[in-house]
Write a structure and sequence with these properties.
Pfam families: DUF1963. It comes from Nocardiopsis sediminis. This is YwqG family protein. The chain has about 260 residues and is of the alpha+beta class. It has helices at about 5-25, 80-85, 165, 175-180, 245-250; strands spanning about 30-40, 50, 65, 70, 70-80, 95-100, 120-125, 145-155, 185, 200-205, 220-225, 235-245, 255-260. It contains five helices and 13 strands. Strands 1, 2, 5, 6, 7, 8, 9 and 10 form an eight-stranded antiparallel beta sheet that branches. A three-stranded antiparallel beta sheet has the order 11-12-13. Strands 3-4 form a two-stranded antiparallel sheet. The protein is globular.
Length: about 260
């Protein structure tokens, strides 16, 4: 994708929606990201990235759990395959990222006491791709069907509820969130034509269902939409984010997972 061809369209769009001053400020917030979708036909997979299936962990890595209840593997991202497009937006080599979450629909009684807002209810584990094994999931963990995925480059803008938008100074008493309500948030040949559906995304800005997701210093690692394989609340979206400084040091204990639903 030729970024230089798309940026002028973003500049014009932001100016049309938010005015000259607000438009420039909004366009400056653009970030690179990817749409994530199962491969089909002649699509090439994004390295070893996949949804569901087994994790790819370094030997000896314990299976993540909360209060003795195992989490379920949702996705693996091969960041080496994403790095060429992300450039400086991916400040360090991360290798493979394994995304785990406490499955909300399992019926076992052990789940009744678990707090889904406890940071132990999710986990992101990085692994060196040269040293990984694929351990079997514990019996109580759900194993989703493995789906290899492609990662297509897009340019993204924040939705009007994000803190970065609300912090813009538009002058003249204008409310940034209201001014930005018509902003298109994904651009590029592989971006959705409108903002009515989120889909799966990696990096960039998230598609917002309701409310903001990130602070200005946060990075979106992965957005998982509801689909035929899983459901987040009432047709919701699951977001994994991390502070930028934690990403640079590889401190995935500071990842935050949030679910938004209708």
């Amino acid at each position: 994708m030729d970024e230089s061809e798309i940026l002028p369209h973003i500049d014009r769009h932001c100016a049309e929606v938010m005015g000259e001053v607000g438009g420039r400020a909004m366009a400056a917030l653009v970030r690179r990201g990817h749409t994530i979708a199962p491969v089909g036909g002649s699509d090439l997979p994004a390295g070893r990235s996949h949804l569901g299936g087994s994790p790819q962990l370094e030997p000896g890595t314990p299976w993540p759990e909360i209060d003795g209840v195992p989490l379920s593997l949702l996705a693996v991202l091969d960041t080496d395959a994403l790095a060429p497009w992300l450039g400086d937006d991916l400040p360090v080599r991360l290798g493979l990222l394994n995304f785990f979450y406490l499955d909300p629909d399992l019926p076992w009684p052990e789940y009744k006491h678990v707090d889904y807002e406890d940071p132990s209810a999710w986990r992101v584990i990085a692994a060196d791709p040269e040293r990984t094994v694929s351990p079997l999931a514990p019996e109580a963990a759900r194993v989703y069907e493995r789906r290899a995925v492609k990662a297509d480059p897009i340019l993204t803008l924040p939705g009007n509820w994000e803190h970065a938008v609300n912090a813009l100074d538009l002058g003249s008493g204008k409310v940034p969130a209201l001014e930005a309500m018509g902003i298109r948030t994904a651009w590029g040949p592989f971006a959705p034509e409108d903002d009515k559906t989120g889909g799966h995304r990696a990096f960039g800005w998230p598609w917002l269902l309701q409310g903001g997701v990130m602070s200005e210093d946060d990075v979106l690692l992965l957005q998982l939409d509801s689909d035929d394989h899983w459901m987040w609340g009432d047709v919701g979206v699951l977001y994994f984010t991390i502070p930028a400084d934690a990403l640079r040091t590889g401190d995935f204990s500071r990842v935050v997972c949030r679910m938004d639903c209708c």
